[in-house]
Amino acid sequence: MRCVIARFPFDLTKSGVLESMKGIKPEQVIGESVIIGRRTYPVKQVGQVITRQDRRDFSAGEILRAMTQLGFTCPGLPHTAAPTRDLNPFQQASAMLGAPAAV
Question: What angle, 0 to 180 degrees and rounded to 10, lies between the N-to-C axes of helices 43-51 and 60-70?
């Protein structure tokens, strides 16, 4: 598959990405990630390995788009549920306006 990452064209294949990432130890995942084989890699680490460019030269979105098109799983960021509590109408309005509600 041909894709453009950081204004440079790349011909990427799923097998080529698997081969490039073979033997690469995954860094700690903080943001977006890509599952390659049985390992989960940070998107920027994958981009750096497959493009041989500095991580600042491309966006995570470019790599996510390319990896998704190649068929890799790119799980989203884990969403933590906000604690819910019953608010009275005044507190709801205050929260919507971003002001601290009077208790």
Answer: 80
